């Protein structure tokens, strides 16, 4: 008897659906998704470290290697070749890809995204690309969760929740911080904070952490032990740090956006790779510290070993505190550029680790400056400012203040820094959001109107598809018709009370209402005299299919008071959208996206 895996899985699925309630089934699936996320995190981490070890190790051990600075160029070329000749598809950029799948693909991700980042991200970072593994881990985990959800025929709301579970599991596994992982999923993916969603998120986080413990034990990516307790007298310094990290967040975002715009001007992707690789190689030659994710550098700063971090062949003999501060500031600038170039040039990675790297540098510099100036009687704890700086920049760049607060609190195994974390993260987020309404993750989606937010009405409108509400069963009139033709070709053959008018090129010109011709349509003496041009009127408003989003369409109905509005594409008539069908579709989508 031939073994049929698909048939067996179908039978198991049917049994589960009959035996478990919807909530119980979601909890079970979330545990599996968490397990998959943990495995993805482990695999990505090990593959990256394997490549780095084959190339000679981290930046300190590679310092003697005369060729280490060409590795990023080789890595970008390998990713390019894999994408063009093997995958033959655009891989897409991190979290934005997942958010787009939620808003425009009904929670489904493409199949190749299950494995694409698993191959390209370790190559990018293993060869020295300046990015992080967090976003590729989330993308691969989310893609696997949507494949699993598709097999189980889950609803759109459940699919979105499983993507959130994948994200929570990925972050929890990487940092062994379950609360931060859950909050990350809620903040970034705009999940509803309800008991129905919280339990699966919690289960996924726990499942992923257990997976991580199985492979790595209690080893964590960031090592720190808080020594001194938080002093209330340091509050003004943390307020100022919030302002500084907000400024740095805005700067990083602008550098990131500018870099992407510049690289988009390249017509050849190969030229983009070469230019990006050469820039990275040049930066790496000057400052090897920006090699890869940068967690080893962060750990050295947390341990107070900035002399190792600032070790540079161009600064031999310089050991003054102010030279250290200046060098750390240069590292901040170089890391911003290197991360932006890595991703813009085609490398696969995220900004999470670079944000932590830059934030730690800012906090460490800030603490050193305070102590160097002798502002306080007792020197402040530089390691505390290093940690809080990470939270401040994360809150500003990613617009995720709660994730920033709880992540740092969890990796320090305590909440003694909770107050300064809240102060700095809140100020940084408040200032940054004033000048940058959307994060790096969501900026492009927001500009296109494809961003799902915590605003339920706006989220539902974003998820709706304009194609599904267009009606095309209207009798079209041409502008050379007379009244007789209007009656015979339009009124008699249609059960609608509105008729679109187009020219010989099908360009939309206006509308004729049945009420406008009701009193004359039986007067045969007017059949040859009255024409479409005379009877036609201007539409209350027009919906441009390529430009208008659902939010804009709803606004047009509200402002005009119309019940039907014409839809055009490049000026040509497509159909009508009726207010009644739009509201019906809205109610249906609201039901679909509610867990």
Automatic annotation (TrEMBL):
SUPFAM superfamilies, A to Z: CBS-domain pair, Clc chloride channel
Subcellular locations according to the entry: Membrane
Pfam families in the cross-refs: CBS (PF00571), Voltage_CLC (PF00654)
Stretches assigned to the CBS domain: 536-593
Primary localization: membrane
InterPro entries: CBS_dom, CBS_dom_sf, Cl-channel_core, ClC, ClC-type_chloride_channel
Membrane-spanning intervals of the chain: 25-44, 64-82, 114-133, 161-186, 193-216, 236-258, 270-291, 320-338, 350-373, 385-408, 415-432
Keyword Nuclease: no
Protein name: Chloride channel protein
């Amino acid at each position: 008897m031939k073994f049929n895996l698909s048939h067996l899985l179908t039978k198991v699925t049917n049994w589960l659906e009959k035996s478990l309630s919807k909530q119980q089934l979601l909890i079970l699936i979330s545990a599996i998704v968490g397990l998959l996320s943990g495995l993805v995190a482990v695999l990505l981490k090990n593959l990256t470290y394997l490549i780095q070890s084959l190339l000679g190790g981290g930046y300190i051990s590679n310092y003697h290697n005369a060729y280490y600075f060409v590795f990023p160029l080789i890595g970008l070329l390998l990713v390019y070749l894999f994408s063009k000749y093997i995958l033959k598809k655009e891989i897409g950029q991190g979290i934005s890809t997942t958010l787009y799948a939620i808003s425009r693909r009904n929670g489904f991700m493409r199949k190749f995204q299950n494995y694409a980042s698993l191959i390209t991200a370790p190559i990018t970072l293993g060869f020295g690309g300046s990015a992080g593994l967090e976003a590729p881990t989330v993308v691969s985990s989310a893609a696997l969760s949507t494949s699993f959800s598709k097999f189980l025929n889950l609803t759109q709301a459940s699919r979105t929740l499983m993507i959130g579970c994948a994200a929570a599991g990925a972050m929890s596994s990487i940092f062994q911080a379950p609360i931060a992982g859950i909050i990350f999923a809620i903040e970034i993916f705009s999940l509803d904070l309800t008991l129905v969603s919280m339990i699966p998120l919690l289960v996924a986080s726990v499942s992923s952490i257990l997976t991580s413990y199985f492979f790595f034990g209690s080893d964590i990516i960031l090592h720190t032990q808080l020594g001194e307790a938080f002093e209330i007298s340091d509050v003004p310094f943390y307020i100022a740090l919030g302002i500084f990290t907000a400024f740095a967040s805005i700067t990083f975002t602008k550098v990131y956006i500018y870099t992407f715009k510049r690289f988009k001007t390249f017509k050849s992707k190969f030229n983009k790779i070469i230019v990006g690789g050469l820039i990275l190689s040049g930066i790496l030659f000057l400052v090897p510290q920006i090699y890869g994710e940068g967690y080893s550098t962060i750990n050295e700063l947390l341990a107070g070993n900035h002399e190792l971090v600032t070790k540079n062949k161009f600064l031999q003999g310089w050991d003054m505190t102010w030279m250290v501060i200046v060098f750390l500031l240069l590292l901040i600038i170089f890391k911003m550029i290197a991360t932006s170039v890595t991703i813009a040039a085609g490398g696969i990675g995220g900004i999470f680790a670079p944000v932590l790297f830059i934030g730690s540098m800012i906090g460490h510099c800030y603490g050193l400056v305070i102590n160097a100036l002798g502002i306080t009687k007792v020197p402040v704890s530089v390691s505390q400012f290093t940690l809080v700086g990470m939270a401040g920049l994360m809150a500003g760049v990613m617009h995720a203040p709660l994730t920033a607060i709880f992540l740092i609190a969890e990796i320090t195994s305590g909440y003694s820094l909770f107050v300064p974390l809240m102060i700095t993260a809140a100020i940084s987020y408040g200032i940054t959001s004033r000048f940058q309404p959307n994060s790096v993750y969501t900026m492009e989606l927001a500009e296109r109107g494809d961003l799902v937010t915590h605003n339920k009405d706006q989220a539902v409108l974003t998820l709706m598809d304009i194609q599904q509400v267009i009606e095309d069963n209207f009798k079209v009139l041409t502008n050379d018709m007379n009244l007789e033709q209007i009656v015979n070709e339009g009124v008699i053959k249609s059960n609608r009370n509105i008729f679109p008018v187009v020219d010989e090129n099908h360009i939309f010109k206006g509308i004729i209402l049945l009420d406008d011709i009701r009193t004359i349509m039986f007067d045969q003496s007017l059949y040859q005299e009255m024409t479409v041009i005379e009877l036609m009127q201007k539409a209350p408003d027009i919906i441009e299919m390529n430009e208008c989003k659902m939010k804009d369409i709803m606004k047009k109905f509200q402002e005009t008071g119309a019940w039907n509005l014409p839809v055009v594409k490049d000026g040509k008539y497509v159909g009508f959208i009726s207010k009644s069908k739009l509201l019906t579709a809205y109610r249906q989508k609201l039901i679909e996206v509610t867990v």
